[in-house]
Each structure stands twice: as C-alpha cells, then as structure tokens.
Amino acid sequence: MNICFVGTGYVGLVSGVLFSDLGNTVYCVDNNSEKISKLKQGIVPIYEPGLEELVKKNYNAGRIIFTSNLSEAVRKSDIVFIAVGTPTSKDGLSADLHGVYEVAKSISNNLNSYKLIVTKSTVPLGTGDEVEKILLRKNKSNMFDVVSNPEFLREGEAIRDFKYPDRIIIGTNNSKKVSSVMEALYQPIIKKGGKFIVVQRRAAELIKYASNAFLATKITFINELANLCEKTGINIEDISLGIGTDARIGSRFLRAGPAYGGSCFPKDTKALTKTASKFDVSLNLVNSVIKSNESRSDLITSKILKILKKPKNKKIGFLGVTFKANTDDMRDSSSLKIIPKLIKKGCLISYYEPTGNKKILDKYKGVKNFSNIKDLANYSDLLIIHTEWDEFKSINFEKLTQNKKLQIFDLRNLYQPDAFLNKKIKYYSIGRPFNV
Ligand code: UGA
Predict the structure, then answer these.
(1) Which of 207, 212, 237 most suits a substitution to test ligand 1, by most atoms within 8 Å of the C-beta?
(2) Which of 4, 223, 235, 341 is deepest in the core (most CB within 10 A)?
(3) 27 Cα: distance to centroid of ligand 1 (angstroms)
(4) Which domain holds residue 358?
(5) Is 83 a pocket residue for ligand 1 (Cβ < 6 Å)?
(6) Is residue 434 part of a domain?
C-alpha cells in the first residue's frame, strides 16, 4: 500500500518506518525541511533503540520517502495518517489541536481519489468529527473516511510495541468499508497475535485517553501505597507481587517510583479531565491522580533533605535524569521538579546521564555533568538512582568508590536493602522501611 504520515515526530516516524519495514511505500512528511534533510542522511532526531538502523534499511530500499511536499505525498497515498503533536494548550489542560486541523485543511486540498484519513495523534473525543467537517467543505463524502487509530507505543520500547501490540484500535463510523482496508494494512501484526478491535470513532479517541489515565492511576496507587509501606515496615514489592498476580489487576505498571512523567501521562490525564468537564462530567479520580503525582516531588525532596540532615553545600549526584530509562526525553521528568527544590536548599547538583548532557539543566548555575558513574559516585555525598537504566542495575558501589561516606537513595528500587547491610554505604529506597 501507499501510505503517508504527516508529522515525523515520535509517533509518525516510528509508525511510518515500521509500516515501510512491512513492505509498504511510506511518505514521511514534515514541514521542517532541516529535519527531512537529516532523515535523508540517516540522522534520526529522536532517541529510540533500533530505529536508526530501520530508517537506513528502508530508506536505502526505497520504501520510505522523506519529503516536505505534503500535496504530492497525499495525492500518491491510499491512507493518510495525521501524526502531528497535540501539546497542552495555553490553558494548561486541553490538547492544542491547531496542528491537526491545519493538516486536515492541507489534505482537503489534495483529495484526488478516495482515501482513508487516519488520526494517529492523541486527540480528544470529537476531533475526528471536526476533521470530517473540514474535509467536507471541499470534498464529497464518498471521497474519504475519517478514522481514529490511536497509538500505544512506549518510548524506548516503541519498535517492540509496534510489532507486538496487545491490540489495534480502529475507530470508524463506516466500519464495513474502513475496517477491511485497515485490517489488510495491519495483517502482518494481527497474524502475530495483535487483537483487531473496531469501535465507533469517538470511542477509539476516548480509549487512548482512558488507557493512559488508567495506567497513570495504577502507578499513583502504588506510589501512595509505597508511602504507607515506608511507615509500616512493609516492602512495597511484596504488595505489587501480591496484588499483581491477581489476573484482574495485572502485574505491570505497579513499580513504585519518583512519579510518572514523560510527554503523555501528565498531558493526557489533564486533557481527559478537560474534555469531561466540557460535557459537565467530573472525573474526580483522575483529578486526584494528577494532584497526587504533582505533589510527589515535594515528598521525594523532603526525604532527600531528611537523609542529608544539613543540605547546604551537600553534593547530590543523579544517576539518570530523563523521565524513564531507554529515552533521552526530559519532558515532565521528575528530576526537573526535584533538582530546583534541592538547589534552593543550597545543594550542589551533578548527574551522569547515559544519553549525555541535558541542555535544559544548563540553565541552573553550577549543575555538573559527569561522563561516567565512577567519577560521579566519588564526587557525591548522596547518589540518587533516578532512572532504571540497565547500566545502573549491577553496580558494585563499594568497589567503584573510595567514598566511604556515600549514601544512596534508590528511587527505582533497583537494589535490595540487604545487599548494603554491614556496609559503610547507607542505602534508602522507595516503599520499604525508611529510617534516618
Ligand atoms: C505511555 C504509554 O505507556 C504508551 O502506551 C502510550 O502510547 C504513550 O504513553 C503515549 O501516549 O504516547 P511512555 O510515556 O513512553 O508511554 O512511558 P511509560 O513507559 O508508560 O512510562 C510513563 C511514566 O510512568 C514514566 O515516568 C515511568 O517511569 C513511570 N512508571 C511506569 C512508573 O513509575 N512505574 C511503572 O510501573 C511504570
């Protein structure tokens, strides 16, 4: 099939490249010509393990065309995916849909044959109806169908999530015609076990937000229980195991940590509550999840201050600063909330980050970036394990550092407290007895 992805951000690029890897001809369109020329040279603007190789392989095979010429790409395609960003608007809650509607207008001018117009961007319910209205201004209704096909790719795991999804959601108000085309497109993935689910278009739009809000709720639930465990001498991992083995609950997304972050959960939970309020519905549970998650950085900071006792001029080294492992993404990372609070208390911040220096931290005077774990550990009074990169999981801290007074606060529970018994290094973690 000939497919077009408008927007070569995270969603558009990953999905476009992987559809080309399945043998389709894919036009990846972006109005950022610098990005397009870099992609043509095999330079991938985002960090995603395995993606660069796939870009090069499929570009060299002629299955991907990187272009800024939207008109030509749309005209030559049977299916056009809208995959532009929907960041939080100025009101701080709702999704900004300008990009989506602008693309819909451009597509509208280029409908030279029947096409499926598919929204992959995360959009609130009702957006497909608006896209349809835009297309109807210039085109007859038999020239297109507007479909919702939300993505469920996790950063750092996107290739696997694309190839082996739990489900593929198709939202359409014209299910007969649309679902056979979409089913044919996804056939290689369906064959491997991905469930193909067809629902009304608005339902598909809501499924995306409901999934992210539910996962955010699960994480927040376990984070709050971790607080209780710390005060009652219980290990949160026992709770995650004990409840997660109930198939009705499920074991995934029950890892306590420093608060959820990233470009999706914080944005999508807020946009969902905003959408609900437009329909006069209060999503009290999601609202309190947002509040609980936002206040978690205060809680973590107060624990750090407790460990330090006298924070002024204490050296704090972060192992990892991105919002999770296997990504270079700093968006809504908990480190960005904790670090300024510690600086205010007079702490001296440094970090080692597997994906290199983070520009956003350069604005804080005195924040140091170390290029290896050893130097950071020898320099720091307190090491904070902030992200769960594999390279942080089996460090022999005693061997690594001569720093006998080192303290460690493990925000991802990568180590067992027993391993530090009778050692000079003091170890603290999340959701386990926390004594200072
Ligand atoms: C999330 C969803 O998992 C994807 O299905 C979805 O497609 C994507 O958002 C999106 O809407 O585009 P992502 O933001 O890449 O993916 O990251 P996750 O792996 O879901 O992690 C989100 C946050 O939750 C991270 O800060 C992570 O550290 C935290 N988390 C996750 C926990 O604290 N505990 C857990 O058990 C799991």
Answers:
(1) 212
(2) 4
(3) 28
(4) 296-429
(5) no
(6) no
